[in-house]
């Protein structure tokens, strides 16, 4: 049976801004207070979706969330009308207002971990929204993420939805950004690699000293159990702590995999030999030979990898068996990265094409091409059961382009977040969007 990988990209929400909310993510900290351009941001993301759709890759859309999140502000003790709440929060707790106004749900690689039916004992596709509990602004995403995913993948006979793990540090979960599936073919059983920053219950293991390790081993193990994965086809590996301290807050900032290929930096893992020695035979028992492309630190240093997001690329399988690497424009601006890419493309290996996108608005908050997409491998029957409203088409592209152009502000600064008109505009936009995508009432303001 034919199976496909579908990339669901997060639509950038109307409140896209730079609030410096993500300690450990160097771009987020560096761009605090920079003016943001929400309309350009959303159009940049949409252009990537359309270009990949035009190339014949299966592409979907994941809706953004309602921000500012009034229910979170109410939970924090603010009372009165929506306008009162925004005014009080702006005056008394501006940090809370910016946290609860972030458009961070755009980085849907953190929305959930997804395991395809071929790997799960019950033969269903499993979804667990990430609790994202390391960052206040992201910890409020999962309830609505879960609702949106259920509206997209509604058929319970085929799709199993789990709630997010408890929002406790030992269960820190950042979703697919720390999860990679390898397989001979999307529809055949594969091997799932879970990469964690720290083992919460094992203080003897090295940990980063400067920045937080967002993903725990305990969370990854819980997801593997929930998704009914075969331990013989599951690998857990630790990120190198000093690499987290250099700004690699998710594994997808330093490694990417697809099919039987792993493309990664020499300093990505605490011990890549141990990881590869486990991954290789496990994948071989699934019928595929691992191809590991390691980039040496003296070819591209970690700082350069973080600046350019070379590894936050999308690896897409082409019909001829080769792969396309989707990278951000920042890769072209770096002599070291660009020559590394030229070397790769001409080496006769699996990657034979590079496609470059301008995603600067997202990149300035630490989100590259891979952060903006959530991968779901589906059989043809499962794909037929997906809500058709969220699948990219020429018509949907035109509608979304018009919708963004109509509803989004050109420019946004932190001082605009208390503007009650911004809340109204966002709600109007999302109300219309839920209709366009056929999601039904997924937002709190629609309940
Ligand atoms: O969680 N940035 C996001 C970027 C997420 C990138 N995702 C992956 N690597 N998969 C984060 O750190 C910054 C928001 C701000 O500072 O305004 C932010 O949330």
Short descriptors:
alpha/beta; L-arginine/glycine Amidinotransferase, Chain A; about 450 residues; globular; three-stranded mixed sheet
Main sheet strand line-up: 2-1-15
Distance between the amino and carboxyl termini: 40 Å
Reported CATH architecture of the domain at 1-107 and 372-447? 5-stranded Propeller
Supply the helix-strand structural class.
Answer: alpha/beta
Give the biggest beta sheet. 3 strands, mixed
Task: Describe the protein.
This protein has a domain at 1-107 and 372-447: Succinylarginine dihydrolase (L-arginine/glycine Amidinotransferase, Chain A), CATH 3.75.10.20. The two termini are 40 Å apart. The mean pLDDT is 98. It is globular. Helix 2 (38-54) runs antiparallel to helix 16 (394-407) and helix 16 packs antiparallel against helix 17. The longest helix has 17 residues, at 38-54. 34% of the residues lie in helices and 17% in strands. The strands form 5 sheets. Strands 2-1-15 form a 3-stranded mixed β-sheet. It is built from 17 helices and 15 strands. Residues 18-22, 25, 28, 102, 104, 107, 109-110, 135, 138, 177, 249-250, 252-253, 365-367, 371 line the site of N~2~-(3-carboxypropanoyl)-L-arginine (SUG).
